[in-house]
Design brief:
Chain lengths: 437, 569
Amino acid sequence: MTKTVTDVVCPFCGTLCDDLEVVVSDDGKQLLEVYNACAIGAEKFLHSQAEDRLTRPRLQQEDGSWKDVTYDEAIEYTAQMLASSTKPLMYGWSSTNCEAQGVGSEIGEITGAVMDNTATVCHGTSLIAVQDIGIPHCTLGEVKNRADRVVFWGCNPAHAHPRHMSRYSIFPRGFFTGKGHKGRKVIVIDPRKTDTANVADVHLQIEQGRDYELLDALRVAFKGLPLPDVVAGIPKEQIYEAAEVLKSGRFVIIFFGMGVTQSLGKNHNIDEAIAVTRDLNEYTKAAIMPMRGHYNVTGSGAVWGWQFGFPFAVDLSRGFARYNPGETTSNDLLRRGEVDSVFVLGSDPGAHFPFSSVKKISELPSVCIDPHQTPTTAVCKLHVPVAFVGVEIGGCAYRMDNVPIETRKVVEAPEGMMTDEEFLEKVLVRIKEIKGE
Amino acid sequence: MAEYIIKNGFVFDPVLGINGDKTDVAIKDGKFVETTQLANPKTIDATGMTVMAGAVDIHAHVAGPKVNTGRNFRPEDKLFNCTPRRGVERMQGGFSVPTTFKTGYDYARMGYTTVMEAAMPPLYARHTHEEIRDTPIIDQAAFPVFGNNWFVLEYLKNNEIENTASYIAWLLRATKGYAVKVVNPGGTEAWGWGLNCENIHDPVPFFDITPAQIVKGLIEANEYLGLPHSMHVHANNLGNPGNYTTTLDTFKLSEGIKPRGGWGRDQVMHHTHVQFHSYGGDNWGNFESKSPEIMDYVNSHDNITIDIGQVTLDETTTMTADGPFEHHLTELNHLKWANTDVELETGSGVVPYVYSPTIKVCAIQWAIGLELGLLAKDPMRVFITTDHPNAGPFIRYPRVIKWLMSQQSREEMLNGFKHSEKVIDATHLMGIDRELSLYEIAQMTRAGTAKALGLGHMYGSLKPGLEADVAVYDFNPEQEHAPDDIEKAFGNARHLFKTGMQIINEGEIVSNGNKRTLWVNARVNENPQVMRDVKEKFLRYYTVTQNNYEVAGHHYVPNPYVIEVDATQ
Ligand code: SF4
Ligand SMILES: [Zn+2]
């Protein structure tokens, strides 16, 4: 006999689909099948069932080999490392729940850590732009129910957020959008001919790195002012036409991704994209949304927001919270050699950081908490495998539009495995003892 | 639990009619008791000091998505004010949008023990509760917003009060909410299309209903259920010259309706931050105070309460579910603008704002708030707020109290403004010599707010049986004092107890308390139609499933205090 769990939340990408169905064995120990998820989402669930999964912490030896240790030993090791550091980097926090993020914050407070999340290499530039100019935003349901103009700028949901288009942005029929796809005009702005571009009504194949110019040109075109013949590789007629498509919509939504946040111009691109959205609100209704990657990177920015007042790159090392991207961001700290230990949870900097940073991590005392074996666990001194959040333990996660959803536990973790939150709680208690609090 | 006796202070308790008499206050098992019931109490010497029940804030924006947007998009709000972990205190930071920890501690330092979060978008209820959970010491509750909710618009279009009431009960339970909040009724839904509803008869696009129908229907549904608090409204047309007529029109929607439920409140409408709604003139040039017209109405109608929304003349962060207003504001001041429209439910905007004493309009706004307080005939129905952080941060309450208590401090301000003469001309404050007493301040910050919230059985007084929430201020009402002494005393409680736990001792925070989240569980008769409608809306229009919508207790509301309402009769 099997059981089907409904309304399961997918802990993979910022789309945070919450309509999955998961079939589990009667004893609740085995996960058998996953329905409604996209391929990458299903893979995440099924991966938890891997036969060769690590279930106990292990410590890297001098010769590079690994030795199994108990959770108690791992807690002691982690607590000692953090307590004896003057400025540890506590990085990641994007693939875990808000409960764990909250406990992590308090550890950071006591040990004077720098708290940083994956936004640092992703949408941190968007967060900076929002601090410059604000953001007209909305929930994904507003897009579903109202949007008749949909722009994807520098993002490719067909691959990175596979169910985004069917659940929210292109295909669904909503309250004022009964015609679904037919009632929407879709514009894709991307130098590549992506699978998302293939479903678009208009594809502006922009020259790489020219996003700022094209955004600026759109603002000029809204006002009907003259443009050069070609901007960013796009003929001006196409730009005027795109501007007209946007202005004539009832509700415009712009989604943007790493193609604009991490290309030439960085946060200035996003400033300008938000300015485009602001301008459009003079003519119609418009909103803009970052396509956040990890399923709960948004949540870590939210938790730090209410606890410290800053969404990433939070430096607690002086005893109070400071924020100065470029100085207090992970890669800058690592490259300048300003941190004396590294703690990673809920991310894989080994795969996403520049080599120079990864090398620094490998040279420092380091702990990585991750259910998987990753490039990061390979370079850290201690690897602590934990239960999968959203599969083996529930907890709160924030969707890309900041909507908080409670993820579900669908199966039991292997016997004796700890969760992120449990592990951090124990480390916190131990650090308080060491520090005499 | 420890017993305490607070001895020899000057006690102000409007519920018990104590007006500065020297009375001892006894605490046992978290409640106030008769002094004779104490066996071996610790003594707190309050000689020469003022003693009041813990204060109750009826309206502030302290937790939830728009507050956090304010924090995260304003790093500049934390310049030079971040403080370290110390003793029991966590790290803190922020001026107009403080972190949750700072929020709890700062309220405690002012002697506040209960605070209402005034606008919770239902879809973001989890977020609101996570922040409330991380706010130490104070009891809190959150008001979900209903005034632009599609269920409400559709039911009230046909005047279906019972269905509206069933839906309210369902949503309060799903979101762990406390009261029915209405913000710019209909206008925020219109803002989904970039439009607005500018007066109470301006129809909502596509929904075929007016703001007047929404407000009246929600008052009736609220009284059908007999909820602890009344319908709590921020009317249409906020912030515009000449808007006082819209405010009066909104007030009138309450006429002829009586409170139900037996919670001890007399009002069926609480109108919030009325300062923003008391404007005459028809442009910024002839902008003027209409507080006398507003207060004439309030003074002569017992079934209304208001809070003032006092402008404090600070740099602050405005935030409201009134989406179109924030867009209007960013067009006026050209500062950064955040907006979030929430599917089927509501919207919101956030814009920084500098209330400068050198700007005539700001100074007039400052005067209007104080006029409302000073023209109040019944301080049990007119409350002190700054609509935190909209008109100013809540940490300015002690300053607002000073202005209300001291004509001298007001006149120094009026005479000091850059456009002093014009401000005096456009307002009535200069002629008002009333100085509120400590007794009246206790009405406006404790007894009155607790009563209006339907919480007079828990808060607002030192009566035996109530929660032992009490503040001791270093202020001797029998001695000569300068106006600034008032501000200093009310900003630095000497002692504070929350449900019988000592939170502040000799001015030091010594405990994080045992904060609770209040919510209302209203039981109604089964209503299959409403449950069908709910199911259908989740299937077709929401982007979360119905089963993923309800806020579970454990993590979000770890220490609940549930107020049961039986509306099955
Ligand atoms: S789109 Fe993202 S959240 Fe949805 S199923 Fe796929 S990976 Fe999971
Ligand atoms: Zn308000």
